Amino acid sequence: MTHPQVSMTLADIARHLNIPVKGDGNVAVSGLATLKDAGPDQVAFLANRAYVKDLASTRAAAVLLHPDYAQDCPVACLEIANPYVGYAQLSQLFDPLAVNRLEAGVHPSAVVAEDAKLGQGVRIEANAVVASGAVLADNVVIGPGSVVGADTQLGEGSHLHANVTLYHGVVIGKRVILHSGCVIGADGFGFAHDGTGWHKIAQLGGVILGDDVEVGSCSSIDRGALGDTVIGNDVKIDSQVQIAHNVHIGDHTALAGCVGIAGSTRVGKHCMLGGGVGLSGHLTLCDGVQVTGMSLVTNSIHKPGVYSSGTGAMANHQWRKNAVRFKQLDEIAKRLARLEKRHQG
Amino acid sequence: MTHPQVSMTLADIARHLNIPVKGDGNVAVSGLATLKDAGPDQVAFLANRAYVKDLASTRAAAVLLHPDYAQDCPVACLEIANPYVGYAQLSQLFDPLAVNRLEAGVHPSAVVAEDAKLGQGVRIEANAVVASGAVLADNVVIGPGSVVGADTQLGEGSHLHANVTLYHGVVIGKRVILHSGCVIGADGFGFAHDGTGWHKIAQLGGVILGDDVEVGSCSSIDRGALGDTVIGNDVKIDSQVQIAHNVHIGDHTALAGCVGIAGSTRVGKHCMLGGGVGLSGHLTLCDGVQVTGMSLVTNSIHKPGVYSSGTGAMANHQWRKNAVRFKQLDEIAKRLARLEKRHQG
Amino acid sequence: MTHPQVSMTLADIARHLNIPVKGDGNVAVSGLATLKDAGPDQVAFLANRAYVKDLASTRAAAVLLHPDYAQDCPVACLEIANPYVGYAQLSQLFDPLAVNRLEAGVHPSAVVAEDAKLGQGVRIEANAVVASGAVLADNVVIGPGSVVGADTQLGEGSHLHANVTLYHGVVIGKRVILHSGCVIGADGFGFAHDGTGWHKIAQLGGVILGDDVEVGSCSSIDRGALGDTVIGNDVKIDSQVQIAHNVHIGDHTALAGCVGIAGSTRVGKHCMLGGGVGLSGHLTLCDGVQVTGMSLVTNSIHKPGVYSSGTGAMANHQWRKNAVRFKQLDEIAKRLARLEKRHQG
């Protein structure tokens, strides 16, 4: 694969987005860039008010923008109600992984069990391993070094990048993208203590990922202890995320990097957890909850909205003084109450 | 491997746990489930008071429970002092990985050094790599794509799942379970600064894991700088955990997901660190310390007990007001003291 | 590979560091150790005042130390201005990976694309995969199970340990060390929301790593959305770190374990981020910023210095009382202000 030199006209692009071009549709473009960086063969986009300042001076061939800004655009315009979604759609046109459509076939170094079922257009790359009973639907891609466990199922068009691991009995939906190093279906963290030491609880459940899920590099989604761990449709999971056994995540929810979710917690639909957020076990978060970065949630949340914990960074010498006072906070509150009482008396 | 249809009678189960059945021992069962979900061919358990409410209506074939609850059980009873341990023991009977005993042998695609020593019953799966000088005791299983470094030793019955990496000179005890993506023995983070840049300190120590250790997916345990990093017996480590060079963890300690432990820190026996806990370097935690989720520990702890830091989550608009005040906390405390003084005067 | 029995004399060591020996240069030594642990065939070092107490009783063959301490040294002395850097330099002499210089060559089980370019002395280990268009400069080592994506470039002497993954179009400098399980170049976390669900934004940028970079096990560095993610020269990255798309890290900066950096943030040169630190997206940290462990930074920092957030650990029963008061902090501050006002009135 060599980085493709995609070339299309503004008219091609407009047709792809089903919108008109204001300007010369014959201009050829070969990529996307920001308003600031775009050259005369690139399309830029204005999706965030903070970048309006870069519009007047852009050298782009054309700008994808909301009609409200069209009059201020010095170059050709591609007007669209949601320019960020438009940019997402255009980005696919220039993706070398999509453009260089990979050939189907099983690489001779891959090890595929005789009884694995492979749909049409399946591609299994070098040194991948597909175990007995696995079912790969049409157009599935298994990257080099990836391992698909026994009886695991992959829906149509799903793509495992290199060195992904799926344990046995995992069920993956359609068009799922799994990035390198992620592990789906490892044992949940279940042990019973007998007063002296630990007894392992075999993790007998599975993992179900819905359609259009994406999981980032080096993330872990553990299998259930008895029932399944369930990830809904269109859930987007970043890198370095941990999802423990029997967690349920609702459709369209997004989890940023380094999130950790403890066992049996249920996160609603359309939630967003910021980077490094931690959820304790056995909680319920309703639909539409947002939690800001590095917050710890130890109680269920029953009302949509934005939630936070923690304290902001400050100079260390100031922080030291304040952090010491945090340990006296209950005492401070009591002293204040006493003073108020005396004052009233 | 196909998911096994395990079938046994209640009498078989009772015999396995060395307890009597109260009810018909001839009833056949094929799995475990919660009180709520269990059908008439499954065994349920009552190990947590919170689920007593589900006992009266259970449809299970039998319930594993403490004798105190036997009178309230509508179905057959398996009475046991510690039902959670009993559940753990039963869970093993239904584990497909245990039931489908894997055949010994080296897969033809695996690359095993000529001088590696393999005990009886060793199984090395597809595309695994075992380097020179490695010693694998009886019944060791090396999963597909896993790599065992030079001179690394694995004790009897230890099991590496797929895509595990062991560096050179690592020593692993008996019955250790290592989940996919975990890395044992990578270089510790050691660099000396010369005023301009960094000089790498070669990490010359090793890693020793005791017997019955389990390490979750995508966790890292680094090798020592000079001496070894040492993980005691029966230590249970969840996913996404980082253990730095020269850390020592005492026997029976459990580390939940996303824990990070900095260099040379020593954690005692029977400790429990909640999810996302961070320990600074060069600390000592005595036996029996518990730290709640996402707490940061920057000083040694010499007394058993439960420790915490941080603040709980609240609505973001409230949090903003309070978090700003945190930066004024030392000033607030001083103002309060001044007011108290004046009031006394 | 067997752990090497390196043997050299004190004179050899002194010559390597370009310093004199005070004592018998003919004494043979076979390793390094701490002052406390060193035996008569090992060299110890004194790099931290805290260990001066161990100097008088050391059994080492010689001690690497600052000239100020030479008079208190009971054994042979290797005087050097920066003993910690001296120790780092000596450590390389005893590193089995360096001493057992690996032979060049491509293992027969590795899969290397026909059009990949391999320099002199390149070593590709068992079951590694090198894709089309990849360029490996002289003396590059690719560990077992590692995958090098299409068109990815590796500079002279760079070393991938086992099971590393590089995506397509990644550019790696010279003498870079990548530890097992790390993933460079996976897609950044970019999605556009259309009010109903997510549209994937193809990640069209790349990743550039400078010379002398080291990345720890299971860390993730994502590719850029449009431009590149850029890691400067001599940047040291520990295990379990997440670096999101379009982040820039300046030369000589060090990131400890479990750090997470959100998209488009720029970290200056000579910065140090403690374990578990989180940086929000689109920030700028100037050169020379240090952030202490597990702090969250949500605003840019324009002045060198040490920064912190969070609270220290305390006994849980105390913490509960104080954490509750944190939720009242704004109210407490207002009540205090009212009281002060009344008092003045």
UniProtKB/TrEMBL annotation, chains A, B, C:
GO terms under cellular component: membrane
GO molecular function, one term: N-acyltransferase activity
Top-tier EC class: transferase
Domain of life: Bacteria
UniProt pathway: Bacterial outer membrane biogenesis; LPS lipid A biosynthesis
Keywords attached to this entry: Acyltransferase, Lipid A biosynthesis, Lipid biosynthesis, Lipid metabolism, Repeat, Transferase
Catalytic residue positions: 245
Catalytic reactions of this protein: a UDP-3-O-[(3R)-3-hydroxyacyl]-alpha-D-glucosamine + a (3R)-hydroxyacyl-[ACP] = a UDP-2-N,3-O-bis[(3R)-3-hydroxyacyl]-alpha-D-glucosamine + holo-[ACP] + H(+)
PROSITE patterns in the cross-refs: HEXAPEP_TRANSFERASES
SUPFAM superfamilies: Trimeric LpxA-like enzymes (SSF51161)
One GO-annotated biological process of the protein: lipid A biosynthetic process
Pfam families (alphabetical): Hexapep, LpxD
Family membership: Belongs to the transferase hexapeptide repeat family. LpxD subfamily.
Subunit-structure text: Homotrimer.
Function of the molecule: Catalyzes the N-acylation of UDP-3-O-acylglucosamine using 3-hydroxyacyl-ACP as the acyl donor. Is involved in the biosynthesis of lipid A, a phosphorylated glycolipid that anchors the lipopolysaccharide to the outer membrane of the cell.
Full protein name: UDP-3-O-acylglucosamine N-acyltransferase
Species annotation: Vreelandella azerica
